[in-house]
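Example record

One chain of 822 residues, shown exactly as stored in the release files.
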Amino acid sequence: MEKYFDRMQVEEQLRVWWQEQGIYATDIAAPGLYSVDTPPPTVSGKLHIGHVFSYTQTDVLVRFNRMAGRPVFYPMGFDDNGLPTERFVELNRGVTPQSVGPNEFRRICIEAVAGVEEDFRMLWSRLGLSVDWNMSYSTIDARTQKISQESFVRLFEKGLIYRKEDPALYCTAYQTSVSQADLEDVEKETLFTDIAFQTETESEVVISTTRPELLYSCVALLFHPDDTRYRHLLGQNVQVPLAGHWVPVIADDKVQIDKGTGLVMCCTFGDKTDIEWYKRHKFPYRQTIGFDGRMMPTATLIAGLKVPEARKKILAILEEAGCVRGQKTITHSVSIYERSKREVEYLMLSQWFVKILPFKETLLKLADELVWNPSFMKARFVDWVSNLQWDWCISRQRYSGVPFPVWYDKNTGKPYVPDISALPVDPREDAFPGEVPAGVELVPDTEVMDTWNTSSLTPYICKSLFKGTTEGLFDDESGSMAFLPMAVRPQAHDIIRTWAFYTMVKTYLHNGCLPWKEIVISGHVLSRDGGKISKSKGNNPLEPENLLATYPADVIRYWTTAGTLGQDVAFSENTLKIGGKLLNKLWNAAKFVTEHTQDVDPVNGVNVAIDGSLNQWILHRVTEVFSAYAQYFERNEFSLALGAVEQFFWSDYCDNYLEYVKPILFKPESYDVALVASTKSVLAHVTLRVLQLFAPCMPFVTEHLYQHMFAERIGVASLHKTRFVGIQERFEYPDAVARVLVFARVVDAVRKLKSEKNLSLKVPLSSCVVVCTQEEAVALKQLETVLCPMMNIDALEYATISSAGSQLTQSGETWHATIVLQ
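Predicted structure tokens for this chain:
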């Protein structure tokens, strides 16, 4: 066995060997499937330490469940469509849809992400993720497009998807509509300006606004019915300054009397309240902001300007015109698109929507049926669903994405969808694959689906991989072999309101069930400024490739396993150092064990019949540890499971048991032959258990040691294909534990006394008197043959009383010890 662990060589060899041998291949025929709805990472750059953290935690759980005897389905996907992919291509290839044309741009997107996906695959492999790479997908491949389009057609035919022209959340920076879940609320400083309007009687009324550039979109002034200051204006018209058009004054109980002047202008559209008033009072639509974020020609004095510049200019014009009556700086909340970080606008668009508002109560009930880990994460879902105000807009005015399988009657706008058997289709390039009524000319839908609309179908994509077909994916199933619900969805907490929510929506609308039995929520890795590390923020000082060049993969995995599920953590080099020490200790301990157990059967050869106590004690302890370990893992508390194993390994196994049995192993001729054989078999058995217990966290070093020590003797190709059941036999020896506790107290006392005298542990004691009870003396007498040579004691005596405490004295060249246990 090598002197040192050559982790670079071992990691590469095992990574390739695991794949070639199909160690993590899916057993599709086995019942009781542990199926994982793995998050497909967005293919828009490099992975960062946050990905390492969350994906490794998932792998630790998967490895435990595999070794616990459950058949595992662990696929991997790549989210390679949508706006992030487009931005990646534009930045790295220097092309845009406008410069090369939409079709060529889509081709370049697919080509560009292929290389990135291979980089992702290599990184996951180097980290030891036990993914079945034969079960992989992308969110833009033909399989996924077919599934996504079939979902659309089925829900459209059920009346659960509809198209309408409606005010839409719109990002003018990326020129696409977005959904409510894509927004972030931020606090910003702005000017709150009082502006005078002229009434029909040439008097003036004053409104307060933060968006004076929308004067050209003003369609009414409103006041609260209880506000006596403005009742006389009801039914009158007022003239909008600069714009010049007249608008009615209307009463509405949505107006806040104590905000501003109590008189508010409704524009199309400044915020959600404007939209509500627009619909309630059937106001006309006056658009003044274009899809490019510039003011339209209808905003005559500020036409062509971007919104921020338009706001500044119109305030100056209003001031010059004598229309400003007051102004102050305020801080208020605005909605920004999470990717562009720009304020969204509300623009009128014809778009596709998935109905979700009618199902809010049902979705909340489903959340009660789902197991949430950690449990407090459920509150985020409940809060999000409870406050939903919009159906789900799935239209995006982009290029890279799954196209809508829809054509429209050019004259009437009636939508035509193909038969499911014709999918996937691309109306931008394909003719309608069906009969068209005479005289009807069809035009294609040129938009693409929101990437979440496809990602929300990952349970069905996984099902297609598992079943080997895309047929019958949305059929209801029952019985032990039903694929849905899957066992678990691992994901981060920031996408509960998107990926988790939308997946629950889709699975309920299609099959009336949950997508998974359990959801496991990971935390984030925080940057030095306390923020989440992400590709888009560019605040990642720790490239995974650099970490893997510096630290063993097992050590990095140790750091992730030490983190608590659902909690954000800071990157810790100290934890990596602790993991490195653990790896080295495990290696050195295994080398020692190998020297003494090469001919021992670690599973069937355990013989404790003639053993006094030490072997029974360690078997009892490893049984206790495994019981706690399994309970922790069943609750997804992998950090506590790791802590339990570490404590056992360092204290019971290394510091105590290995030291206790060294005299037996080093001088076997001094002991009964049966005791030596028993000790070797127990040592091999417990060491195998230790490797198993560390295997989910540290798969490389444990596999390498297993191959060297046990693979041939056990006959199982890989440690990760061994099962806790069978090897993890229960051993219970409470009497032996009691005896060894007394034994350990004597050992610790002798070590302490010698340390205080700066004596080597090898210095012999001519005599050692142990002051203890009769029961303790009986326990020690059964272990004298190990205790005396271990602690270099020539003569061991017992007493029940002592006039002094524990002490070490010297007489000439000899040393004498008194140990008081009371």
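Notes: The mean pLDDT is 93.
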